[in-house]
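Deliverable D5.2: sample structural annotation.
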Amino acid sequence: MAEKHTILGGKVHVYQRETGTKWQCSAYLDGRNRRVSTKETSLTRAKDFAEDWYLELRAKKASGELLSERTFGVLELC
């Protein structure tokens, strides 16, 4: 079974997929679920990353910089 943790009062979820070694994080913000890999194998460092990531998302939302959808420019970089 995959391991799951919540931080920041349940606003951010840190989890590890059953087949993976790296931690992922997700948060629901501005009407959509957002996810990213922490690229960390340590739970403590993954939680720190997830907290910083979420606070950056909140700052981007406050300043109007938070994108709601991927743009063609972003897709070309993938």
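Annotation notes: The radius of gyration is 13 Å. The mean pLDDT is 88.
The annotation will be released with the project's public dataset once the embargo ends.
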